[in-house]
Amino acid sequence: MPRYALKIEYDGRPFCGWQAQLGQPSVQEAIEAALALLEPGLARIAAAGRTDTGVHATGQVAHCDMARNWEAFRLREALNHHLRPLPVAILDCARVDDDFHARFSAVERRYLFRLLARRAPPTFEAGQVWHIRHPLHLRPMQDAAKHLLGQHDFTTFRASQCQAASPVKTLDDLSIAAHERPCGVEYHFTLRARSFLHNQVRSIVGTLERVGAGAWAPEDVKAALEARNRAACGPVSPPDGLYLTGVGYPSDPFARD
C-alpha cells in the first residue's frame, strides 16, 4: 500500500484536539472521514503531534496508507474538497517510503505561541492569540527563558496526566520577540525540541508571562525548574495562541527535486 505524508493546517477551536475521541469532533476524525470518501475502510492515520483542544497548526504532519497509487497533487485536492467547510487544509502531499512514520521518524517539533498584550480585546484573531490586558517586559522574560534551554528534568512543566516515559527533555530553542500592534504588543514565543511533554509549552509560556508581568523574577523560573514539582509551575496558558508550526525529519518528505 503506497504511503503518503500530509502537511496540515487547522484552526483548533472547533475540535477537541488532534486525536480521535468517541463522540467528540477531532482533526484526525475529520481527515479520516475525508479519506474514507476516497477509499473506504482505510486504517487510522498517524500524526507527528497530538495537539490539545483549541491548539492550532500551520505545519502538522501525518501519514496515511492508500490502496491505490494516487498522484500526490490529486490526493491533496480531493481531500481539501471533502474537508470543506471545516477549518482544515492539506497544504502539501507527498509519496514517501513505507518506513516513514509521521511521529516516530520526526527529529524535531517547532511551536509558536502568540500573546497579545493590550487593553482592547482582539476582534479578527479572537481565539487565535492569548489576550492579556496588562503590559509585559520583554527582557526579564528573555533572561528567564535562558534557564530552560538545554537538557533538564521538566517535571515542573508537564501535565500531571502526561504519559511520557521520562520528564527529561532537551529544549533546543526558546526565543521571545515583541511586535508592535495597534495599541499593544504581540509577543511571539518560539520553541524547538525533538519532542515535548504534555502541556510543556503552555506551562512554560504561562510561567514566563508571570515574569514579564513582574510577579516572578527570572531566577524564580530556575528555582521552579529545579524543584521538579508540578506545584512550583506558574499558571498554564490557554491553548488559544499555540501553533504547531513545523516538524523536522532526517530528509524533508515534501522537498521537490
How many DSSP E strands? 10
Largest sheet: 10 strands, mixed
* Spatial shape: globular
Oligomeric description of these chains: single chain
Number of domains: 2
CATH architecture of the largest domain: 2-Layer Sandwich
Structural class: alpha+beta
The low-confidence parts are: none
CATH superfamily of the largest domain: Pseudouridine synthase I, catalytic domain, C-terminal subdomain
Highest CATH level, the class of the largest domain: Alpha Beta
Give the radius of gyration.
19 Å
Number of helices: 5
Rounded average pLDDT: 96
Helix content: 10-25%
Sequence of secondary-structure elements: EHEEHEEEHEEEHHE
Would you give an account of this structure?
This protein folds into 2 domains: 3-105, Alpha-Beta Plaits, CATH 3.30.70.580; 108-245, 2-Layer Sandwich (Alpha-Beta Plaits). The two termini are 24 Å apart. The chain has helices spanning 27-38, 72-83, 138-146, 200-212, 218-227; strands at 3-10, 46-47, 56-65, 88-96, 108-117, 130-132, 150-153, 168-181, 184-193, 242-248. The protein is built from 5 helices and 10 strands; from the N terminus they run βαββαβββαβββααβ. It is globular, with a radius of gyration of 19 Å. The chain is an alpha+beta fold. Helix 1 (27-38) crosses helix 2 (72-83) and helix 3 (138-146) packs across helix 4 (200-212). Strand 8 and strand 9 form a beta hairpin.
